[in-house]
């Protein structure tokens, strides 16, 4: 069976940030390569979600239903992250104009009321874009490495994190959901748990994470409802800066 998909996108190039113009003009921004790569990754994920045996490696007793609950929680976390960065119309965001904020940083706020999936109050979203002189793969590997977490994440308490659970979401080992534990700052303090999802395909990659309540996470790992776990995610979206070499191009053979 052959499927033909035609996608049209119209945009004002003058409104596109300079960092993203090579990506858009190369076709990777809105082109079919991006959609096909994303669809392939999502199909692999759905196949695992529907499977009776969810592959994982962990040091905790997580049931099969618990792994599914963790995957659903991670899916909601990543969705909320993308909705905040992209100013999704699902929520009403208000742009915050502050004189002491750099013009390349976008800050928005909204109210969270009666949503069991996030803490009540004012939700703040801050986003910016930077160019780094390293390959997307190298940056992705650095950010998802729990042993190097202390080099950029204040939640690590200045030390390496331990991966307590690892659930694969696709053929690439970079597509997974992990449960990380940060070292306690002192003997009387309990260690912090962080839920993390990493995704990678030919169009780019994501590293999204959020601190999670330990008792609530234990409920999820036993197959409990993840809809009531409050999350405020942070993360990184990594995209190539234009036409890439073969390792970043999807294989259509």
TrEMBL record:
Domain of life assignment: Eukaryota
Q: Where is the START domain?
A: 1-48
Classification via InterPro entries: HD-Zip_IV, HD-Zip_IV_C, START_lipid-bd_dom
Q: Transcription regulation as a keyword?
A: yes
Keywords from UniProt, A to Z, are:
DNA-binding, Homeobox, Nucleus, Transcription, Transcription regulation
- One Pfam family from the UniProt entry? START
What name does UniProt use for this protein? Answer: START domain-containing protein
Lineage of this protein's species? Eukaryota, Viridiplantae, Streptophyta, Embryophyta, Tracheophyta
């Amino acid at each position: 069976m052959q499927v033909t998909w035609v996608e049209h996108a119209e945009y004002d190039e003058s409104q596109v940030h300079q960092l993203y113009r090579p990506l858009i003009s190369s076709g990777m921004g809105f082109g079919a390569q991006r959609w096909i790569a994303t669809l392939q990754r999502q199909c692999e994920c759905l196949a695992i979600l529907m499977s009776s045996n969810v592959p994982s490696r962990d040091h905790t007793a997580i049931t099969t239903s618990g792994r599914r609950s963790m995957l659903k929680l991670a899916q909601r976390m990543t969705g909320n992250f993308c909705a905040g960065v992209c100013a999704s119309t699902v929520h009403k965001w208000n742009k915050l104009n502050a004189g002491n904020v750099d013009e390349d940083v976008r800050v928005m706020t909204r109210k969270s009321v009666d949503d069991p999936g996030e803490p009540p109050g004012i939700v703040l979203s801050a986003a910016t874009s930077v160019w780094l002189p390293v390959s997307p793969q190298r940056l992705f590997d650095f950010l998802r490495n729990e042993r190097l977490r202390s080099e950029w994440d204040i939640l690590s308490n200045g030390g390496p994190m331990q991966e307590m659970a690892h659930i694969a979401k696709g053929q690439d080992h970079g597509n997974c959901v992990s449960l990380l534990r940060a070292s306690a700052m002192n003997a009387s303090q309990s260690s912090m748990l962080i839920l993390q999802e990493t995704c990678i395909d030919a169009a780019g990659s994501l590293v999204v994470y959020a601190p999670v309540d330990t008792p609530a996470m234990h409920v999820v790992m036993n197959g409990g409802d993840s809809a009531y776990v409050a999350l405020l995610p942070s993360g990184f979206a990594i995209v190539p800066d234009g036409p890439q070499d073969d390792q970043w191009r999807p294989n259509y053979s």
